[in-house]
Amino acid sequence: MAAQIKKIPQLNPATSVSSSDLFVINQNNATKKATFGLLKQYITDDFTQARDIQLRKGNGYIQWRYAGDSEWINLVSLLELQGPSGGGAITQAVFVGDGVRKIFNPISGIISSDALKCIVTVGGASQQPYVSFTISAENMGTVTFDEAPPVGLPVTICTFQ
Predict the structure, then answer these.
(1) Of the candidates 81, 104, 129, which is a domain's last residue?
(2) Could you tell me the residue range of the domain that residue 24 belongs to?
(3) Are residues 144 and 120 part of one domain?
């Protein structure tokens, strides 16, 4: 059986975990990966006496228990895993290339010259910020290409703040 990365939505109501399943652990701003087989060694001192565990999402927690036991033990609150809500706005502007025009505006949502706050595609192909295009807040938001997008190709500019 191939290793699987277990995701929180897959842990409801109870999911059996095999020794080859991979877990990603964040500790002190460092990301580590470990198979369940290795984690099981740390759970018990005697690997030969190890018992299978199950994980689930329940009552606002990620919970665990030994397979066959009835009691679920809270491991971590889902609230602790939740980041701040994204209050930023996402906007999209669509133009059509004419083979000549390099400057596209107005584009709402552009409030700085940080091109990393835009996703720009030409004909569906992503463009590289600061190489293929730059942005500015001038003229109600402007994207300037190094080369004019080809005739008839859609130019899609998504901004997020």
Answers:
(1) 81
(2) 8-81
(3) yes
- If we measure between CA atoms, which residue out of 143, 136, 147, 145 comes closest to residue 157? 143
Distance CA 113, CA 135 (A): 5
Reading the chain (161 residues) residue by residue, the pLDDT tens digits are 555 665 555 555 556 667 677 777 766 677 777 777 776 666 555 556 667 889 999 888 889 998 889 999 998 888 888 776 666 778 888 999 999 999 999 888 887 888 888 899 999 999 999 999 999 888 888 999 999 999 999 999 988 76
- The count of other CB atoms within 10 Å of the CB of residue 150 is 12
**Number of domains into which the chain is organized:** 2
Q: Which of 81, 108, 138 is the last residue of a domain?
A: 81
Q: What is the pTM of this model?
A: 0.46
**Among all chains, which residue has been given the structure tokens 């938001």?**
141
Q: How far is CA 98 from CA 94, 103, 107, 119, 133, in A?
A: 13, 11, 18, 20, 16
